[in-house]
Amino acid sequence: MILQKKNERFLHVCNEISNKLGDAKMEQLVRRVGVDPKHRADADVTTLQEAQLLREACKSAEDISFAARIGSTFRQSQTLTGYIAKSSKTLGSAIENSARFYTLADSETNFDLSRTSSEDVMKIENNNGALLRHHRFQEFLVFGLLARLRVLAGVDFFPEKLCLQHEVGDHQQPFTKLAGCRVEFASEFTGIVFGQTTLDLPMANYDPSLVDYLSELGANMLAAHGTHRDSYRAQVEKHLIKQLPGRILSADEVADKLAMSRRTLTRHLTAEGTGFREIVDGLRFDIAKTYLKDGLSISEIAFMLGYADHAAFSTAFTRWAGQSPRTFQKSNQGH
């Protein structure tokens, strides 16, 4: 039994890029994100590099939904979480059991399942704030999760809706068509809302003894794996993005959320070679570029990034990019 297959997800993305764009383009894009394509199976690939590769792939394919399409083809997982999910009693218990150990496959991502009398909600949370600005990666995660859950259930069930925190302007249609259900952008969270009985679907390969064995094995692996603490920059970005759209937290507010004084936060960020204002500007600039490419209006982007008005955003963007947001959008829309 293979409990951890190195770079399984990254290799799947590479294969799908090759199928769509050709081997030469795939190798070019893999090299662009800092990975040697000849050693991609054994390289120490970070989740952020995966996210960057998906962004580059969508740009090269000129298809905003390409990452979601790649996710929808990632239906099998030869990891501990994949095996424990297959052996669970119901679809709901499969999610709960595998979520406990998902960090072994992806230390940057957590799943949280909440069940009430009215709805069942699975939220996807990124520990690394830098990943939240990679909208194509978020789409890849959600559509990939839906694909694997459908395989586990043995039926193409349809959730109430898929939820993504970012916007895509007028490009919702391909996502809705791909999912076969409602896709809600600018949502309060990223994840899936299920119908009332969906998570009660039985699993064909239920094996309680195997679940117990894998759970014990997973607990031991977690203990050996140790704990992971994000950089202070990543923690700041995470809190800033969670507050969007519409408002940027102050340094004092972020420090409070991190249970420290502003002076202590400043000291930690300085040690990492950055500062709070630099993080805010970099985050706004990166998200603004994505939204401009996706075709959102400048007024919408200004609001979503917490600017007082259109003019304030335009001034800031021109300072960062050396050109106005409108000029940037005209030359980059759809890329």
From TrEMBL:
Record's keyword annotation contains Transcription: yes
Source species, domain of life: Bacteria
Residues of the HTH araC/xylS-type domain: 230-331
Annotated keywords: DNA-binding, Transcription, Transcription regulation
GO molecular function list: DNA-binding transcription factor activity; transcription cis-regulatory region binding
SUPFAM superfamilies found in the cross-reference section: Homeodomain-like (SSF46689)
Pfam family, one: Arabinose_bd
Cellular component aspect of the GO annotation: cytosol
Name recorded for this polypeptide: AraC-type DNA-binding protein
